[in-house]
């Protein structure tokens, strides 16, 4: 399945769930960095008070959300950068924030990029993930996935499957809109240590993945 089909074939919520366990890879030109997606957040476009495109707001900064599904949308907050992927057809500005990955490839380089931080602190948050990739700009904003150094492996045979997926409220959403702040649009692999704010007491065997038979 190609990216255009994958990122438009279903609801943004269902795609957010299906992305869990899929490899996200970044080719920095010298080596492959990446891991398995363990946490995502869905943003539902014009009706979503937490979305950058709420009420149809469209600027140069959020243009990526208005492109066809599979387009990269990178945004910045202060010195931090965040990796999103547009979903749905062009003009319907929904998207998914990739919040965390479980490292699997290029771990040594990612630790270097994170100034020595390792273990869950390496990639247990969206800005940390981008730092681990060595990305400190928006150069790949507006690029389609297949025309970028990023790859999301859509082969189900390469996917890790979670024993349990949790849906919870998104992180850092303004409480001035309680209804949207409380919507369970954040999805994560239960018990995976690389999920944002996962407590040590909640870690699960095999990092929450199903064991292969």
TrEMBL record:
The keyword DNA damage applies. Its EC number is 3.2.2.-. It is an enzyme of class 3 (hydrolase). Gene3D superfamilies: Methylpurine-DNA glycosylase (MPG). InterPro entries: Formyl_transferase-like_C_sf (IPR011034), MPG (IPR003180), MPG_sf (IPR036995). It holds the Pfam family Pur_DNA_glyco. GO terms for molecular function: alkylbase DNA N-glycosylase activity; DNA binding. Keywords: DNA damage, DNA repair, Hydrolase. GO terms for biological process: base-excision repair. Belongs to the DNA glycosylase MPG family. This is Putative 3-methyladenine DNA glycosylase. The lineage of its organism: Bacteria, Bacillati, Bacillota, Bacilli, Lactobacillales.
């Amino acid at each position: 399945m190609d990216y255009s089909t994958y990122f438009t074939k279903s609801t943004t919520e269902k795609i957010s769930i299906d992305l869990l366990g899929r490899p996200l890879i970044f080719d920095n030109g010298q080596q492959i960095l990446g891991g398995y997606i363990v946490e995502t957040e869905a943003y539902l476009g014009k009706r979503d008070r937490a979305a950058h495109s709420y009420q149809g707001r469209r600027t140069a900064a959020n243009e990526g959300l208005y492109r066809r599904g599979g387009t990269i949308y990178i945004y910045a907050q202060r010195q931090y950068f965040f990796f999103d992927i547009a979903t749905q057809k062009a003009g319907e500005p929904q998207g998914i924030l990739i919040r965390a990955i479980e490292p699997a490839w290029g771990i040594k380089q990612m630790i270097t990029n994170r100034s020595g931080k390792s273990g869950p602190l390496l990639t247990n948050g969206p800005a940390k993930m981008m730092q681990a990739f060595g990305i400190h700009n928006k150069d790949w904003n507006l690029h389609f996935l297949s025309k970028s150094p990023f790859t999301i492996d859509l082969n189900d045979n390469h996917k890790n499957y979670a024993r349990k997926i949790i849906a919870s409220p998104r992180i850092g959403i303004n409480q001035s809109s309680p209804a949207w702040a409380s919507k369970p649009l954040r999805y994560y692999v239960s018990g995976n240590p690389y999920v944002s704010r996962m407590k040590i007491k909640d870690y699960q065997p095999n990092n929450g993945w199903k064991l292969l038979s």
